[in-house]
Amino acid sequence: MKNMLWASSIYWHLPVLLILASLIYSATRFDHWPSILHHAVRSLVYMSIFLFLVFGVLFFFSTILPAME
Amino acid sequence: MSDARASYPLYLRAGGAVLSYLVPGLGQIVQGMVRKDAHRLTKGVFFLIALLGMFFYGLWLGAWKTVFLPRTHPGQVQLFGKAVPPVLRDVWNRLPYAGQFWIGIAAWPALIHYWRDVGEQPIIEGHRTWLGSFQKTPPLHELNALQSSEGMGRLWYVAQAYTIIAGLLNILVIYHAAAGPMHPVQQESGGSDAQEPKS
């Protein structure tokens, strides 16, 4: 059951969206595909770090902070 | 402005931007074909496939009910003492469409339904036959039932996110068609592929 839930998790869409957004954003900034791909990887890392930080803040306020009170 | 950017050859700027609004990447495709620029052409094809793919995947994932523009409160809304045009009021009440709109023609059926829903008589005669209920505002109970159905739930919002992100990314593509890439290849006399500036 748990495996089924994991398989159908909506969070599988997150990497797809991140990769597509990085590629399209980079393609509007550079002309050649090697540069586009290089910049897309960097954008992907930056966006992932940003989302992870947002996740950390929300997780702190929703789960850790209530448990401390 | 860098030398590369200042000397970057821009062509069909306004036309390319309009075409890229109508169909994502079409402006770049036309620019690439006119100037025989393979980079521009392949990027246009990439934009076309990626953005329309995202948009229609989001539509499909949300049971074809993620893009619509409903008519909301019939009363007048005021902003800074002035009446807000009804269409802006309705977009404000359905903000996702403000992002979806930028995908171009693919989001126009929602606008056609929006204009048709004025009064009793359809404004655009005969559209019912070819549009059907595609991007028509679903009844609230139908939308609630869809969102609470098994296997949908939060997935509907993910599906909507696909369509919004596709529309918003197309704004960058429209700008790219008009102004070129942020970091163009340095044009050198006699040389083809020169170094690209670091971002």
Short description:
The complex is a heterodimer of chains A (69) and B (199). With 69 residues, chain A is mostly helical.
Task: Give a written overview of the molecule.
The complex is a heterodimer of chains A (69) and B (199). Helices cover 83% and strands 0% of the residues of chain A. Chain A has 69 residues and is an all-alpha fold. The mean pLDDT of chain A is 89. Chain B has a two-stranded antiparallel sheet. Chain B is built from ten helices and two strands; from the N terminus they run H-H-H-H-E-E-H-H-H-H-H-H.
Secondary structure elements and pairings:
The complex is a heterodimer of chains A (69) and B (199).
Chain A: H1 2-7, H2 13-27, H3 33-68
Chain B: H1 3-6, H2 13-22, H3 26-35, H4 38-61, E1 78-79, E2 82-83, H5 86-93, H6 96-100, H7 108-116, H8 127-131, H9 140-147, H10 155-179
Antiparallel strand pairs in B: 1-2
User: Which secondary-structure class do the elements of chain B indicate?
Assistant: mainly alpha
Shape of chain A: elongated
| Strand numbers in spatial order across the main sheet of chain B | 1-2
Mean pLDDT of chain B: 83
Count of helical regions of chain A: 3
Low-confidence stretches of chain A: none
Please give the alpha-carbon distance between the first and last residues of chain B: 13 Å
